[in-house]
Structures are given as C-alpha cells and as structure tokens.
Amino acid sequence: MSYDPKFDGLKIFVADISLLRTGDVLLTRNRMTTSLNDRRQADIISVLSGGNFSHALLCTGSPTFIEAVGLGVSNLSLQNCYAHNLTDVRLLRHHDDSIASAAGNWALTRLGQNYSVRLAFESILPSKIVPREDRGTFCSALVATAYRAVGAREFADSDPLKITPATLEHSSCFHDVTNTVFKQILAPRNAERMSALDGDRSPSPVSEQAFIHAEIYAAIFSKIHDIVLRYNLPGNKIPDTFMDVLLFIVELRKVGKYRDAPQEFQRDIDLLDVLLREAMSRSRLEMMLYESIKADDNYLERTIRESFDSKPDLDVESLRSMLKATMDQIARRGSIMDNADYPRGLSQAWDLWLDLTERSLSAFAVRRQVLEETISRLRA
User: Does residue 75 contact residue 116 with C-beta atoms inside 8 Å?
Assistant: First the structure.
C-alpha cells in the first residue's frame, strides 16, 4: 500500500491495548467512512435507537474484539485501529470483572455465526416483523447474548435481539473508560494500513475468518442436525457455529457420558469428528493463520528496521502495550495447550485445532522476543 499524504501532521486516537480488559464493550459510529450508504445506515441506527453510536464490539482478550458484521461474526484487532474523533467511540467496562471476563470468553464460540440484517433493523423498529427462523445475530445482540449467557443479571430479563448500541450506551452496569484507554497521537507512517473505527476498514488476513468458520459449519450442519434430533439430546439444541460443534464433540469425549450409549450413536459421533476435521483441512483456516503470521512478521521486520533509524518513528509506550498484550495472548493460548481436561486425543478435529493453536503460540513467542529487543534498544 502506498503512502497517503493525508495523514501528514494528522492527530488520531488509538487505544492503549495494555489497558484493555476482556469483556470491554466498544461502541462506534461510522461517521468518517467514504461510503455514503454506510454513513446513512450508521445515522439511521443511531437516530432510531436514541443513541450516539451505530455499532458494538466485545473484547475477547486484548487487543482482540469480536463483532457481528456483514460477513458474519469475526475478530478485529485494535492494535491496528484508530479513530478520527473520540466522540465517535466509547469504551465501556462492566462493573463485575469476573462476569465481563466470562462474557468475552463465551463470545469466542460465536465466531462464524451469520449476521442478520433483518434482526438488526428489527431491533430498532417499534413493531416486530412477522417472525421466521433466523439463526443470525447482529452487533449489540452478540454483546447482550454473551453477558446474558454468563449470568449478568442486568441482561437476565432482556431479549438480546432488542438490545441496541443505545441500550448498551445507557446501561448503568457499564462505566465509561474511553478517556483512560484512548490517547491522541500523531499519525504514524503506517497509518494508511490501519482501520478507522469510525470510518473505513483496511484489509486484514483475518477478514475472511467469518466466511471460513461458516463454510466449515455448513459442511457438517446436516450431520450435527441429524444427531441432535435423532438421539433426542438434552434440549434438542443444535450447535450453531463451528466452535460449538467442536466443543460439542470434545465434551462428549471428555466426560465419557456416552461410553455406554448405543454403538450406532458412538459411530455417528466418530463420523461427525472425521467430517469436521476434513472440513477444517479443506478450508482456508490454516492458510489464514499463515497469512496472519506473515503479516505480523512483516510488521516486526519494519519495526526492527525503524528501531535502527537515527530518528525512529516508534513509540516505546505503544510497544510496551503491545508486549503486554502479546504476553496475555501467550498465556491464554498456553492455557488451552496445558488444559488437562482437554488433552490431545479427544478427537481428530480437536487435535488439528491444537496444532493451529501451537503454531500461533510460536508466532507470539517470536513477536515477544522482537518487542523485548526493540524496546531495550530504544531505551539504550
């Protein structure tokens, strides 16, 4: 991407990612987008919902936020984001850290869930459209569903599908930490490669994450649907994301609850496991991880080169924040690898997921080393 002179001397707002917490809710308004249609849509949502924002995201662990957008539920890293104006972003923090952390962790299972335009606009309309089956979600409903799922009493009696960004904005269970976490800086040289929280997004290796997860789920949907209904499993609730199905298989294998179940049932679970692994292997899941690691390597190479410049365009505090976030990511993924309740061998699909997790851990270890060396060099 070529250098964009519009960022010369421009001051922008970025989040100190070391201050983000799992469960933080980020509200934004797409006021600076170059798309007239997107700006109008943001204005309609803000006005009809009675608030100042049009979109909501949930932190699943710094610097990553999960969001429901047009392609489906996917991730966004605040490490590569900025805002033109602080009035168009608001960071909210739940009063109970344990509930917030649980909500952020729970939301990870929603990756790949479909986005529903119909449900999104129905949430801001005074009357309900004739209901029909819709397994999708939208931004603020995703946040509300996550908090409700982990027992947040403020959402216990609420219909997540009627929760808007304005509902979250005015909720007394959150307090505003925007001015604590966001800071104003001079736009860095790589600003044109960053995404604007209140404007246009830049392409990212994980942009297709929602599509990949949805594609995997679609490949095994008929089988999981058949199993749940045929064997009358508790609640007859059909897992509705790829991660849901993966955990469904792992939980069955972990507790051994169905070891005495009919052989036919066990064979069906074995087949589902094989089908899921095959769907994962055929997808771009591994390639997406490779491309993400490659993009991170390119960033680290630029950082190293810049650190040897006589006047490096690097902010030591920002690098420290990134280092802390990287250490947190290593700890979170390491806990998956070290969890004795979910060892290798539970399922073929789970083993493949652990392989991918191990690969991402290696990449984070490289990033940690580069950041530590760069910070040390700049302080010398």
Answer: no
Alpha-carbon span 380 to 374, nearest angstrom: 10
pTM of the model: 0.89
**Token pair 């390639």 in the structure block, residue:** 287
CA separation (Å) from 369 to 10, 152, 302, 366? 31, 39, 15, 5
3-class state of residue 139 by DSSP? helix
> CA distances (Å), 133 to each of 39, 116, 270, in order?
29, 11, 29
Strands 11-15 and 182-186: antiparallel
Pairing of strands 72-77, 11-15: unpaired
Per the CB < 8 A criterion, the answer to whether 112 and 134 are in contact is no
Helical H segments across 231-308, by residue range? 242-255, 263-282, 285-307
CA-to-CA distance for 265 and 232, rounded, in angstroms?
11
CB neighbours (10 Å) of residue 33? 18
Map tokens 């789970």 to a residue: 350
d(CA 21, CA 176): 13
Mean pLDDT by 10 residues, the chain (380 residues): 65 94 97 92 92 97 94 91 96 97 95 90 71 80 97 94 95 97 88 90 85 94 90 75 92 70 86 96 94 92 92 88 93 92 92 96 96 92
Tell me the β-bridge partners of 83: 13
Q: How far apart are CA 24 and CA 26, in angstroms?
A: 7
Question: Which of 188, 122, 194, 132 lies closest to 160, judged by CA?
Answer: 122
DSSP state for residue 35 in the 8-state scheme: -
Q: Quick one: tokens of 286?
A: 């591994």
Would you tell me how many other CB atoms lie within 10 Å of the CB of residue 29?
A: 26
CB of 93 closer than 8 Å to CB of 178: no
Give SS3 for 187. Answer: coil
